[in-house]
Each structure stands twice: as structure tokens, then as C-alpha cells.
Batch of 2 targets.
Target 1
Amino acid sequence: MNPIDDTADLGFASRAVRAGQVRTQEGEHAEPIFLTSSFVFANAAEAAARFSSGTGNIYSRFTNPTVRVFQERLAALEGGETCIATSSGMAAILATCMALLKSGDHIVSANAVFGTTVSLFNQYLSKFGVATTYVRLSDLRAWEAAIQPNTRLLYLETPSNPLMELADIRALADLAHTHDCLLVVDNCFCTPALQLPFRLGADLVIHSGTKYLDGQGRCVGGAVVGDRQRVGTDIYGFLRTAGPTLSPFNAWVFLKGLETLTLRMRAHSEAALQLARWLETQPAVARVYYPGLASHPQHELAKRQQSGFGGIVSFDLRGGREAAWTLIDATRLLSITANLGDAKSTITHPATTTHGRLTPQERAVAGIGEGLVRISAGLEDVADLQADLERGFRLLG
Ligand SMILES: *Cc1c(COP(=O)(O)O)cnc(C)c1O
């Protein structure tokens, strides 16, 4: 009952609003939430047919109509064949590894990936005989040197958190395919509104829907996008068996979030660029990390690979931890929280929060200093964000 059956030829913003919706006989305009754990059958024969064919709704651990709309919409935006939604971003990463790896396999991962991803690889996958080697995100030679005969996945996020370093997705996809590996890109920071990893050769795209897909800090969830065999069969098989599926309510929040994704990512990017340029003029600031700045060492790659520079900006304060904490504590508008991708701007001290579990040496290698501050630019007026930070800058003299 959708007036538009095939949204494939529509533009990105149109797909973000329209893809995946199927109207019921009620003629609803907005997508309904199917809060139901199971589904009924017309008769015993239909029940038997659904169970034996594996198609059609049976139980919401397997499929749910609201979750399906979100999955189809995100797949349409990323340009992937299919998408499977998960209960969190971490569940998306776990499901990918459980479905595609076996004991004796090897991962090469960027060292600058989400901290819990490193814990998942090191504490849990290692117990099942899957080893991980970490390399610097932007060092193509290091990636190549780390690949072993048993390497199956190259894993990365770009831009990285919190230093906004970029990976050359095209070059790493070529490298992965030369060595019979898959390139997995966590596209959480850019979202498909700013970066399309499949167009650059990536095999799988991971999302934490918790961040920009929701966009207002409400629900935890995630997704994997990719081809029908790996995602639609292998990863889906793990999910319906092990159960870290997305709830219909959270799927609904995310699919409504996707409708405004294009506008929000543009606004986040504009605010972050304005903040980054302004921060560069502050005497207390030693260095600003933002791919949209001409001073960013990979600015050209960012312009080529992304259609916007994203909402995250980090900077080093000359005064170390004391200065960072002074600046953070002086804010009243920015929220002191480690989350990101929200309409509300957030401010974080990575060295003592998101990266606090690393040793000082590990932090030094990763380039995360005591004076580093990360901001996720929200949707408030930039002038108000600047005024909020200025209070702290005045205290720093
Ligand atoms: C938050 C985050 C994750 C984990 O997602 P959850 O939804 O918190 O499980 C993975 N990757 C990146 C880049 C993230 O920011």
C-alpha cells in the first residue's frame, strides 16, 4: 500500500523519508509500531509453511515489521543490499564476528576504534581463538604488514574518535580484497549522509544507532549493512538464534530519526566547522583536530571521501588536564557526558573518561593528551556554545 514501491531511484533525502514503509489497511501516514512478540497464522497449514520456508512473520526475535522498515531504510541510505538491526552497536559488531569468524581466524583493526570494541576483541573473541592485531588507522603499510594468511577482517572507524584521523577507505578496500579479507567500516561518526563506504569498496558497514541515527539521545541500538549472503543469511542467522535483536520501539525511533538525518548532519557539520575555526583563534588552544580545517593533515582526503566533515571536534589545551577540567566545569549549556551525536552538544575529557582505562603510555602512543577535549556539536546556536566555552577560556587567561 505504499504509493512508491521502489525508492531506489530517489535522492538520498527522499529515501531517508520514504524507503521501507509499507502501509497497512488502516491507511496510517506515519509508520506504525508493531509492539508484538509473536504473529498469528490463518490456519495450521500457514503456520507450517512459515516455519518451513523461514519467510513471513513468526516471532519478533526473527522479524518484526517496524524493525524491517528501519532496516530497509538504512540499507537504502548506505546503498547496501540488506541490513540487520541489533540491540546495540556492540551487538552489531559481536554478531558480525560470531557469524563470519571461526577459531584460528585473525582481525587487523585500527587502534583508534571505540574502546569497547577493543575490549570485545581482546577479552572475548580471544577466548574463542580469534586474535587481533592493531595498527595505526592512516598507515597503509602497517595494515599490509599486519595481514596474515588467516586474516579475515580489516576493521576500522573513520574519522577516528577523538582525534579525527581518517582512513583511506578505497585503498584499504583494495588491500583487503587483494588478501581475500573483508573491509568492515563502522560508519557511526559520518553516517551515510556524509560518507558511503560501499561506494569506496567496503564490504560491511556497522552502525551504533545510538548516536546520529537516533540523533536525540533516546535509544540504544545498532545495525549491520551488507550483502544478502553475509548479512541477510549469516549474520541474521546468528541474531535470530542468539537474540540481540532491536526492539520495535527503538527501531521506530531510529527510522523517524533517519527522516531528518540529512538536515541534522549538515547542521552538525556546519556548527562543528564554525567551532573548530573559532577554537583555532583561542590563545589557550594548542591544536584543533577537525577534518574540515585546512590545517588538518588529511583535509584533501576528507574532501574526497566525505560529503561533510561531521559534528565532532577535538582540541588540545596548553594547560593540560587542569585547563581541560576548568573549561569543562565552566560550561552550563554543553552537557558533560561521553555520549555524542545528540541534538544537545556534549563535552568530554577523553584521557579520564572514554580512554581512562589505557595506561599513560598507551594514551601517549594514541596521541590522547591530558589537555585534550572533545566536543560533539549539537543543534543549539553556535554563538551560545561559544559563549559557554568563553566562560572557561576567560578563567584560563
Ligand atoms: C557508541 C559506539 C559504538 C557502540 O555502540 P553502542 O550502541 O553503544 O553499543 C560503536 N562504535 C562507535 C564508533 C561508537 O561511537
Target 2
Amino acid sequence: MSTKVTVLIIGCGIAGPVLANFLKRKGYDPIVFEKVSKLGDVGASLMLMPNGLKVLNLVGVADEIEEASIPLEGFLDHTSKGELLGSSDLPSSFRSKYGLPAMGVKRTDLNLKLRDMVANLKVDVREGWELENIEETDDSVTAHFNAGRSVTGSFLIGCDGIKAATRRILLRKEGLREDQPLFTGLTQTAGLSRTPETLKEKACLRNWFGEGVHMIAYPVSPETTSWALTLPEGEGNEADWGLCSPEETTARKEKLHANVSSWTDRATKELIQEATRLIKFGIFDREEMKSDQWHSRRCVLVGDAAHPTSPHLGQGANQALEDCFHLSHSLPYLAPESDTYEMDLGKLGPHLVSIFQAYAHKRQPRTSALVKGARAQGQTRVVTTGPEDCKKRNEKVATGWKDVETIAAKFDALCREPFQSVPS
Ligand SMILES: Cc1cc2nc3c(=O)[nH]c(=O)nc-3n(C[C@H](O)[C@H](O)[C@H](O)COP(=O)(O)OP(=O)(O)OC[C@H]3O[C@@H](n4cnc5c(N)ncnc54)[C@H](O)[C@@H]3O)c2cc1C
Ligand SMILES: *[C@@H]1O[C@H](CO)[C@@H](O)[C@H](O)[C@H]1NC(C)=O
């Protein structure tokens, strides 16, 4: 019997394990390499939309997510003074329209679920392997890792996130030096807190717009709310980014309280007060790459590695999941038992580059538009140029919500992807 087609998957975040699942079931032999030596505590939370959840459903983890979380029922935007800017019940119709709702998840829970899911499929997951270099030939690719380790496979998929080594290496091979990611001038401090009573009546994604401060909050379980305060910060001062130590937490909370001291909704202050831990991020994105920079002959980029985004539209992970669906869909099924296996294999090699091309061509415009949209959304959220401009911003937000049809069309364009599902 022939050996299987080895696929080197770099990164065990969100896209990596999902692709490993798809490819394993299509007859490939994926190996997942993760630089972190023990996957565990990562970030705060994510809002999964029906487009992303549909893909997670295909790998069998949507049910578990639904059990732990709570379906989103609405959007609610307020000023910091408690004035309602707009609202929508659209999310309450997602399940009937798209088969799955929108749901907040704790990021750590999702990453561990995905890692366990691939481990159960007997996919080889190697933690503590950091990609350092890539060599390609006409019919294979060799990945070089830390500690002098190398593995050769048929092709390689870069799922290594915003700081991807795969992207840097692919660009370098074209003679391009990669620029640093762009600091958007904003930071986010995020926390997980017991849901305040006043927010329990309806599971909403809530935004509060203040002057130079923005807060977002949504439930990640019936009892827990994830929230984040977005603030401008001139320089990317990385010194106080990351997980806040328990000793510093009280002082940090006091500073955040000061930032919302004039706000009227008590729930905003309660969320900060109740946080079990705080984590602070600088917010970055990148200039878009041309679609032919998304791949080489034997390597292709997926998720944040291809299109890193700021989080203001909540689409980064959802788009990474769409990528996984489209890429695996365009790779042929390989059945080792079948009479045509040798032929299928022979055909795959020369076809890879056109498969990668078609995938990148399909995905690049949509993801680039969302990256730009997210950047603009961030700028709208955090207005620092005085009360007049804040008032204008508030009017703009309120006017946006009044155009019910445009809003519905915008969400439909997101949620109906990457495939139509039959509502159950
Ligand atoms: C504050 C914040 C809030 C967000 N909120 C949302 C949201 O609500 N909804 C949403 O859809 N998205 C959100 N995102 C975006 C989302 O987190 C990313 O888009 C998503 O995680 C991308 O998935 P990925 O698999 O491409 O990369 P990642 O999840 O980043 O995974 C990359 C993996 O590769 C590993 N790795 C890196 N380099 C190497 C190497 N050299 N060798 C081996 N392994 C390597 C990393 O350790 C990591 O495990 C948010 C992001 C931030 C920062
Ligand atoms: C937020 O608080 C910090 C101090 O912790 C302060 O420097 C900054 O100006 C505040 N920003 C706003 C918009 O209140």
C-alpha cells in the first residue's frame, strides 16, 4: 500500500486543528506543529457567528460550544450617558435562517476543544515545535523547526496567526522584507466577569460609546460576560500588555474605573469590578497582501497568517474558519484503498498551485474588505477629538441602525457563508 500524503500544518490555534480534521477525513496525513510547548491559557473570548460556527459544526464541536454558551439574541448600542443609539433583534433569527446562532466562547475553551478534537482523530500534534524555515522542491516541502528538527511533506499550510513565520518566510523567498504589523493606536483590556443582573434579561452584544473610550460586552455562558475596554494609546507601549498579575489587578481596575467614571450604566462598572482576571492587548493589523502572495508552489496561508485583522468586526476567527472550509473543499479526496489512488496522487502535485491560486483568489477580496472595515470600525468607536466629534459619531451610529434593510443585508452576507445550511 502507498504511503499517505503528509501535510505539514503550522499552528494549533483555530484554523490549524480544523484543517487537520478536514484533511484527515479526506485521506491525507496531517501533522500539526505548535510552537507553544503546552497549549493552555490564550486571550479572552471570541464571538462566533453562524458562518464560523457552521464550519465548527462540520468538525463536531458546535454542540459542545452550544452547551457551554448561550445564543445571542440582540445587539444594543448606548452612549456612555445611557442614551440608546440603536438596537436589533437580528441574532435571534440566525438559528432559523442559518441553522446555527451567534455565540460567545472563552478562547481557551475553544482552543483546548479543538486540540482534543484532533488528538481524538489520532492526528499527530507536536507542541513545542516552532517553525523557523521552509525549503521547497518540485515535489515536496521541508519544514525546519527549533532544536534542529526537520520534517518533509507533500505540502504545507501556514496557520500560525498574526505573527506568522510562514508568511515571513514566503515573502522573503520573493525578495520582500516583511514590515512590522501596524499598530492601530488602540489597546484593549479584556476581562471575564459574572454577568450583572441588569444584563441578564437578554443575551445581547452591547456597545457603549464614550469620549475616547469604548466598551463591548457579550455573554460567553449563562452566568459569565466577556467585556473589553478599548482605549487609545499613542505609542505601542508593550510593557503593560499581556495577562495582568493578581497583585496589579486592583490598581489596574482602578484606572479602568477612572476611564468610565462619568458613565451612567452601573453594569459597565460592575463588569470591571467583578473581573476575575484582566488581559491587555495592543491592536494590530496588516496591509493586505495580493492573493498570489498567499501561496507558493507547496505552501499556502490560512486565517490570520494571510489576513491579520483588528478585532472590531469580530470576524477574524470566523473568516479563518471560512478559509478552512474553502481550502479543504478544493483539495481532492484521496482514498488509499481506491484503484485510482496512485493516479489521484500523481495528479495532485501539479494541481496544487492552481488549487492554492483559486482559493486565494476567492478569499482575498472578502477578507481584505473586512480587515479595512474592522480598522474603520475601531476609529469610529474611539473618538478622541472632543465632545462635538463624539456627538457626530453618535449620530452616525444611530443613523446606521435606522437603516434596517442595509443592516440585515450586511449580516446576511456574512452569515450565509461559507455554505447554505438546511435549518433543522
Ligand atoms: C482582542 C482580540 C479579540 C478578538 N475577538 C474576535 C471575535 O470576537 N471574533 C472573531 O472571529 N475573531 C476575533 N479575534 C481574532 C481571532 O482571535 C483570530 O482571527 C483567530 O484566532 C485567527 O485564527 P488562526 O488559527 O489564524 O490563528 P491563531 O488562533 O492566532 O493561531 C496561531 C497559532 O500558531 C502558533 N504559532 C505561531 N507561530 C508559530 C511558529 N513559528 N511555529 C509553530 N506555531 C506557531 C501560535 O502559537 C498559535 O497557537 C480577536 C482577536 C483579538 C486580539
Ligand atoms: C484612561 O486612563 C488613563 C490612566 O489610567 C489615562 O491616561 C487616560 O487619559 C484615560 N483615558 C480616558 C479617555 O479617560
